[in-house]
Amino acid sequence: MTVKRNIYLRTIPIADALDKARSALDRQNLVGVESVPVEDCLGRVTARPVMARLSSPTYHCAAMDGIAVSAQSTFIAREGSPVSLTPETGFAMVNTGQPLPKGMDAVVMIEHVVLTDDGHALVETPVAPWTHVRRIGEDIVATELILPRRRKLSAYDLGALLSCGVWEVDVYERVRMSVIPTGDEVLDYTTRPEPGPGQVVESNSIMLCALAQGWGIDARRRPPVPDNLESLSRALEDALDSPAHIVTIVAGSSAGSRDFTRAAIERFGEVIVHGIQAMPGKPSLLGVARGKLIVGAPGYPVSSVVCFEELLAPLAAWLTRQEPPSRPEVTVRLAKDVPSRPGLTEFLRLAVGRVGDAYSALPLSRGAGLITTLTRAQAVAQIPPDKEGVAKGEEVRAHLLVTPQELERTLVVVGSHDVTLDLLADELMRLDKPMRLASSHVGSLGGLAALAQGSALLAGTHLLDTATGDFNFSFLDKHLPGRQLVVINLAIRHQGLIVAPGNPKDIQGVASLARPDVRFVNRQRGAGTRILLDYHLKLSGIAPTQVLGYAQEEMTHMGVAANVQNGGA
Questions:
Q1: Domain 14-31+174-319, what architecture?
Q2: What's the pTM?
Q3: DSSP code of 360?
Q4: Rounded distance, CA 238 to CA 230, Å?
Q5: DSSP assignment, residue 49?
Q6: Which end of the chain, N or C, is more open, meaning fewer C-beta atoms within 10 Å of its C-beta?
Q7: pLDDT tens digit string along 117-134?
Q8: Per residue in 488-530, pLDDT tens?
Q9: In which pathway does it act (predicted)?
């Protein structure tokens, strides 16, 4: 069977995609109303107004520990000339919350009462009627409106509902989502696999389910489905037959020859959006079948998250008559230039911390497949489609992914990469008042430049002065002249060439890099390791052009090691 290949006819703005989906869905029939016990209603949304069944309190009660009295009996009391009340008719001992005895309308606090040996109570200060008394219906009157419709119920709301005799509430159903991971290359994590070449552990589905649960969506993951139209169609039909309101298909929404999401949807319904003006997240897809929403989330994890946050979550909120949760915003200053593609809204993830009187933002790697940018980011900024990027030092608004307090406890480190920084980051989190290390690996010279520009508090550097054989200090004088600096010797390390286990190429030193059978992977320009390598190449009389792979760059030592491990160098 020949399957028509996906073609993006026209990508549309995110807002237009949401409008199309809302127009195509009948939320009145899709998401129903159910009566739920109050104790199970946290985070649910009221479908109808809620009226009080009981008043609160239901009786006149003492608001303080003391004696209940008739206020009129105390009117003549004066300091030095107390009123003496008898327990038979003049007062009654009460504790907070107890009903007032008949004929009494005030409470005198116990600390303002003198109890005599013969059982009388002496009161020197007159009290007005209803002093220290909670009257019937003071808080809530039976039949009054307690909560309106479309109210997301908080813990406080649950307490108020029970206090006025409401035991069950009519709420919108919790949105249910079925998640179908796809791909011939993905391995089900439940089998604890060890992936080989061309294989990856499937993780997007669990990430999306966890995101959904954080937004109040009941998400269920299904087993991975291979890149096969018939298999995907069967899985989709099964999900459409389930109680799910939303079906999310992970991967397969792009334009590749093995992407079948669109074709599968069109067997049961229609595709209403295929491609949004976003980066990452462009291949996102929306469809409708049997009255249910179908979301095609791209396979790359960052793209998948953008699809969830910008499309799926707002639509799920709309189904239950809510506004999407908002995140706090801060103004941040970009630490480096960020070019962007016009015509697309770019979602730029940032590591952020305070430097001086401003928040400095380090743009993280922008690959849609780099899941670590999600774990390392403290904020995300949007570059609008009418801009070609953001200049270094420019201020932009960013949505926080952490609390504002965490930004104040974040140290911004820019410069050379070393695993010591990872160990330091963990040690900082062990403090009684933990601190986060936000680092960007741009090389030693990049770190000094960041210090000079006020974009970082710390810079990792190991720069060899080839003229003197010393490290770092001559570069500090050159790039940070006259600045007050503290130089910390964080670590002393040995550097060398990373080779495959057993050294199958018999690499003996820098001279071996000139051999035609040896492929090399380099560090980026400005890295101290690159400067050290160039120094040793020069000593060995080897030109960079003689080294196969000299122009292939990695930003970290770990990236270099991964290339060697996988045979890329």
A1: 3-Layer(aba) Sandwich (3.40)
A2: 0.83
A3: E
A4: 12
A5: -
A6: N
A7: 999 999 999 999 999 999
A8: 988 888 889 999 999 999 999 999 999 999 999 998 887 888 8
A9: Cofactor biosynthesis; molybdopterin biosynthesis
